[in-house]
Amino acid sequence: MDSLDSQVLTQARDWVRAGHRAWLVTVIETWGSAPRPPGALLVLRDDGLVIGSVSGGCVEDDLIDRVRRGERVARPSLVTYGVTREEAARFGLPCGGTLKLVQEPLTDVAWIDEVLARCARHELVVRVLDLDTGEQRLEPATRDDAFSWDGHVVRHVHGPRWRMLVIGAGQLSRVLAEMALALDFEVICCDPREEYHLTWEVPNTQFTREMPDDAVLALQLDAHSAVVAVTHDPKLDDLALLEALKSPAFYVGALGSRANNAKRRERLAMFDLSQAEINKLHGPIGLDIGSRTPAEIAVSILAEVVAVKNGVALRQKKPDSQVPAGGVCAV
Fold this sequence. Notes:
Layout: H1 3-17, E1 22-31, E2 41-45, E3 50-52, H2 58-68, E4 77-81, H3 85-90, E5 98-106, H4 110-120, E6 125-130, E7 136-140, E8 148-149, E9 153-158, E10 163-167, H5 171-182, E11 186-190, H6 194-197, E12 206-208, H7 212-219, E13 225-229, H8 234-244, E14 251-254, H9 258-268, H10 275-278, E15 281-282, H11 294-309
Parallel strand pairs: 10-11, 10-13, 11-12, 13-14, 14-15
Antiparallel strand pairs: 1-2, 1-5, 2-3, 4-5, 6-7, 6-9, 8-9
Helix pairs in contact: 1-4, 5-11, 7-8
């Protein structure tokens, strides 16, 4: 679950418990170039306040106007925008765009507490809403599950935020952490060196002075986790890699030249790692964009992390780079 969805659900719960009436609005289907994907959320309060987004603003304005005019649905209901080209233009939808929403009144919000708690434990959960009966329930989910709508039942998958463990607290790490935060990653920096701990000043991140292998184990990395080792010190980077490469983390990368990366792979082969696990390592790290400065290197690294997260082919790698198996899609 990204931070915006978490904010929407948290605010919805708090508004209801403060005595307000509120409605949760979910994008369930789109056609054409609709601006928000299925699953996007918005909560609408009885006085017209909103948190979240289901379009670019015009649809939100119409929903607010409906509530203020007294159109307050008492059960889950469908709302469609952009049926005609004229209406699509009126609501600011791209040419041919159509947006179908479900608007539901919030009464019992205990399910929100449960969803937020499960996500905080890095679990996946699906909320099942039956529009015919108004009944809803929570079920465990897997990474193969996706948002779906069959005309009667909405299945909305909520999951933990993507998180990034950064090994090392140098200048590159600080820039990398700030950019990762902007991309909605939860960021944890690990560096046991006293002089680096004292100078880490990146708001909204976590910092641990554990040894890198201990930090990896403590985080219990899952398929929503990335590990980026950038200390240039094998004693620290390799410790993290030895454990991270055995984990389900979707991305594990380490800073270094092709020559240093080859030596690193030789060192890793001396430990209890299989060749398949070693082959998961992204190194040299990042996409080839001619980066030189810490900020440019951070862009290169994050571009690769996002590409892997989104299942996009890593076409812009440096020549002769070793790319993890499955890391490049067929062109």
